[in-house]
Amino acid sequence: MTLELSRLRKAYGQFDFGPVDLTVEDDVLAVLGPSGSGKTTLLPLIAGITSPDSGSIQLDGRELVGLPLEDRHVGMVFQEGALFPHMTARKNIEYAATASERVDELATLLELEDVLDRKPPTLSGGERQRVALARTLATDPDVLLLDEPLSSLDAPIRKRLRDELHSLFESLESPILYVTHDQRTATSLGDRIALVRDGDLEQVGSPSTVLTRPTSRFVARFTGNENLFEGTVTDRTEDGATVLLGDIQFETTASDIHTSTVTVCIHPSRVEIEAPYVADGDRTANTVTETVARWLNEGSEYRIDIEIEAGSITLTANVRPPTFERLALENGSEVQVLIPKESIHLIPERE
Amino acid sequence: MTLELSRLRKAYGQFDFGPVDLTVEDDVLAVLGPSGSGKTTLLPLIAGITSPDSGSIQLDGRELVGLPLEDRHVGMVFQEGALFPHMTARKNIEYAATASERVDELATLLELEDVLDRKPPTLSGGERQRVALARTLATDPDVLLLDEPLSSLDAPIRKRLRDELHSLFESLESPILYVTHDQRTATSLGDRIALVRDGDLEQVGSPSTVLTRPTSRFVARFTGNENLFEGTVTDRTEDGATVLLGDIQFETTASDIHTSTVTVCIHPSRVEIEAPYVADGDRTANTVTETVARWLNEGSEYRIDIEIEAGSITLTANVRPPTFERLALENGSEVQVLIPKESIHLIPERE
Amino acid sequence: MISLFLSVPAEDILARMNHPTVIDSATTSLLSASISTVVATLFGLPLAYWLARTDGAVTKIVLVVVVLPLVLPPTVVGIVLLTVFGPSSPLGEAAIAAGFPLTRSLAGVVLAQTFVASPFVVVTAKAAFESVDQTLEYASRSLGKSRWTTARHVTLPLAGPGILAGVTLAFARAIGEFGATMMLAYYPRTMPVQIWVAFIELGLDNAYPVAILLVLIASTALVVLN
Amino acid sequence: MISLFLSVPAEDILARMNHPTVIDSATTSLLSASISTVVATLFGLPLAYWLARTDGAVTKIVLVVVVLPLVLPPTVVGIVLLTVFGPSSPLGEAAIAAGFPLTRSLAGVVLAQTFVASPFVVVTAKAAFESVDQTLEYASRSLGKSRWTTARHVTLPLAGPGILAGVTLAFARAIGEFGATMMLAYYPRTMPVQIWVAFIELGLDNAYPVAILLVLIASTALVVLN
């Protein structure tokens, strides 16, 4: 199946969504964006809940715009599940199912056997989302749309259901669109990520491309990259560009940089911290020795703010707890900062 | 100021909160728990919105139970801000302020100068929370209560406001209780974390203690620790205990273990991955060589599932992106897993 | 209310309840109020659904028109109805010619009652429909179910209690209608009119039996429907 | 409605509007409806606030009692009021002795109107108070403000529009009251009664001027209050 959106547009008062061009084949596209970005506009348009002002939505060449919801064969899992509160879980799935065997099959797949006879208000958040998913899958939809199904769940359940969705998505052969505001969910579930900003697609690409090679400051910031600095390109060779950050020169592998002013973008998880004067081994990296200004325990990692250039630049690094403890870091600790050439990404200034 | 809760109890129908004993001095206590755990019951009790069935709440020896809200000098920041929608931001703060200079002072502190004349519905989520915080601080409360003020914000704004709160909390000299369901927020803002489960305090301690030395499977799971296995203690020495996991022996530094059945608890951020046959250097760690079963890109880190004991145990490790790329990990890769002795925590079986 | 039941000896009341004027008025009231309620429900429900699911200027204007009878004084309602359906109006003349007079007839009573009772169905059912999360309807239709199936299996069951409350209120309002009925159809006498006549002609004591019976019938309807 | 305004020539209506009976009834109606509305608001607002902020069996019972006049047929209301306040009741006798009769007087009109209009204030204001998030009240009080300061600066301003709508509805209902007024206070004649009298004694055409004036006054009140 191929879902193809062309020049899709929808205006809501002041707000303009689109024009959007997008093709999703049998993979998972995670639609990521802040609240108010318009990411929630997309799914209702495809499902047929709202009509676009112009443009087309084609599914294997069949035009969906103009068709009523019920004739689109597009399955949608709503944010809070949208289960029918007066029907049991079983009745909810049966209502949608084309064959009654399908109900038990899906109940087994999604581990719902024990809750089939309960009504939605008595189910936990995770169970509700599983029933909603089963109900949608029961119609064997051509396209699967999911609207932040995990956002209201507690962390451990969210993690577990996310893993289950991951396996499920791999077994489905249809275009899947997954809307979320959570960068982790988008990264782990999406084969590709589409970043939405002010009603437009800002960048579409694989998770690692979007994370390490953002095309704008907005994308970088929204995917957790806090290290964004204004820099000047001083030299360009075949192997990359040299960039000046304050008084310090950094070597990068960036090519195709045609402006001299750039945004230097270094993901905190790619900044490495070592004790001072420890040799770097065989890797070539940019190295500076500076002091720790601040640290924050963030659970599975520590966040270290390092002041460079007498405090005019604050570089953030994520450090694993064992490293943090081994280096016995505290405020004022002197550390060696290693930034591999290929970890420095340059975003050209927009004209 | 010292806030002291003694034998505090409150029953809601089927649900029982407490009895809770808790003392908070001039530090930040993060109250962490899943939805429905009763963590949201605590703040209304202290603020005076609800009355306890029994027990006492004392502030420097002054009994609060029985006093009306308005006489407690307890400041509360509500989940969505609870700003008065018919008043501008300035009027909201003025309403609470004892002196009018205080309004401008707080506006400067919280960077609100530009939005003072706007009404709450036109403010962004982050601005609303800042105004709510300013309004509460304007009364110079003896205790500061915060009810998930960041939960509805987008990631970049949440991160920024969290950092601001961190600095603010350090400058305040009063007990602060911060309720959240997010482990990261609790870890980074709390001087101590209190884990709430089914209306009881399950564990209270510093973030690193709660994270690395959980007293129960529940705490471990809720703070992001997925590696929980049933093990048998085979040997105890002065330096620690040896534990059998399937057929593999692990050495630990655990002491005070008196049961032979234990839950072995290894935080994914403390499992280290190396290429096979790379020497471990001078650290002593438990080492096994196994294969990668699955990996997941989680944005700033990769999650690697490693099958141990022919798949009967799945060990999860968090790996930084540079390490992941350096080792060129993929499904089926053979890796050396290193688990430092002190990173293996044992939870005794409950009788 | 309690004074109403205590003011006259019970056997006295029971005896007077058998009086033909009492029985006649009770029959007229029950019949007319039932017809009015059914008519109001049949027309009111679709209108309420449309009002609940549509936004815009037209919706607002229609809503004002629908609510009007709620605030209009009953005697003014009577005059409006007489002007439109009265014997000297074109519609009224045509109806009389067809042997079906719209005033001083059961049709007139039903007309007056329907006019004042309909807003209750529309307003309450509208609120009931609005309380059904529209997302549930979208969910049902995205599962391949038609609008009609969705309405029958999702919307109506969920809006049911609210709609029933509206229908009950409409019945209560219809059976109690006085002002417009007095002007449009003094005959056949409904119970509220009979109370008035009994009070004027025979005094307060004689109005009690009909009043008690009316309260009993209305309360029974409230209990049965809820 | 439109037919009401078109049915008689304008100058004709204006001439008849100057008739003393019309002016008298307009004065009575305006005065009594205003008093009734004020009384209903004074007692209804605190009650509505209490109902909105309290849960439990007592609240429910009080609510049922308050709503009762909404579904009670107007003539039954008249009988109930006569039984309690009528000349032969202890209360009525005492009032007559004090030179302040509760029937066939302005007091009687106000009594009837207040009885039927109060529920509108209570029900609408209750909904308005409920729509004010209680968290805002807690927030205000946790800032050190008393219940009274909170009510004045937070609750009332936010519930204002809803309360005003209830007061308007109460006024409209009071000025239109017919059934209970007929029984409790045929004199002094209010406009709805005057419409009835004009219709019965002089025919439909003579009822138009009062009806038009009544609709105009009621609509003006609706516009002014909103």
From TrEMBL, chains A, B:
One of its GO terms (molecular function) is ATP hydrolysis activity. Its EC number is 7.3.2.6. Its main location: membrane. GO terms for cellular component: plasma membrane. Keywords: ATP-binding, Cell membrane, Hydrolase, Ion transport, Iron, Iron transport, Membrane, Molybdenum, Nucleotide-binding, Transport. It comes from the Archaea. Coiled coil: none annotated. It is found in: Cell membrane. Residues 3-223 form the ABC transporter domain. It is a peripheral membrane protein. It catalyses: tungstate(in) + ATP + H2O = tungstate(out) + ADP + phosphate + H(+). The complex is composed of two ATP-binding proteins (WtpC), two transmembrane proteins (WtpB) and a solute-binding protein (WtpA). Belongs to the ABC transporter superfamily. Sulfate/tungstate importer (TC 3.A.1.6) family. This is Molybdate/tungstate import ATP-binding protein WtpC. It comes from Halalkalicoccus paucihalophilus.
